[in-house]
TrEMBL record:
<feature type="domain" description="Remorin C-terminal">
    <location>
        <begin position="32"/>
        <end position="137"/>
    </location>
</feature>
<dbReference type="Pfam" id="PF03763">
    <property type="entry name" value="Remorin_C"/>
</dbReference>
<keyword id="KW-0175">Coiled coil</keyword>
<feature type="coiled-coil region">
    <location>
        <begin position="67"/>
        <end position="109"/>
    </location>
</feature>
<comment type="similarity">
    <text>Belongs to the remorin family.</text>
</comment>
<protein>
    <submittedName>
        <fullName>Remorin isoform D</fullName>
    </submittedName>
</protein>
<dbReference type="InterPro" id="IPR005516">
    <property type="entry name" value="Remorin_C"/>
</dbReference>
Length: 144
């Protein structure tokens, strides 16, 4: 509007002055409109940038949440596997201990049976000694 005040001091005719005033008003309106458009454009870009920033943050939060959930699930699975492994190890150790105990019982039975056989053999040998005859072969075909 400063331009409008200064044109009155120019040595122009009334028609030229009106045309110049009209031209300056149009130019001023055009610049005003362009300034409004630039301001609107900047405002919209800022809004779009803010929306993108919020969406980006939402994606980051979602990602972190899913990662934490997956890691917690993995930890639960690992703990369950550790518990199962411990149970299986204990079960196998018990099984090995049971096998060892059974083997010891069998060894003891074999030793007891061997002792009984030795006693029988010693009794028979004593009987043979007292009666004065030697033992007979039960399967003569295998003898020499």
């Amino acid at each position: 509007m400063q331009f409008l005040h200064s044109i009155y001091f120019l040595p122009l005719g009334r028609v030229q002055r009106n045309q110049l005033t009209e031209m300056l008003c149009l130019r001023f309106e055009s610049e005003k409109r362009l300034a409004l458009i630039r301001a609107w454009e900047e405002s919209e870009k800022t809004k779009a940038e803010n929306r993108a920033y919020k969406r980006h943050n939402a994606v980051v939060l979602w990602e972190n949440s899913k990662k934490a959930s997956a890691e917690a699930h993995l930890k639960r699975i690992e703990e369950k596997l550790d518990r199962n492994k411990a149970k299986c190890v204990e079960k196998m150790q018990n099984k090995v201990a049971e096998i060892h105990r059974t083997a010891e019982e069998k060894r003891a039975m074999i030793e007891a049976y061997k002792g009984e056989e030795f006693l029988e053999i010693e009794e028979k040998a004593a009987k043979f000694r007292t009666r004065g005859y030697s033992p007979k072969k039960y399967l003569p075909c295998f003898g020499s």
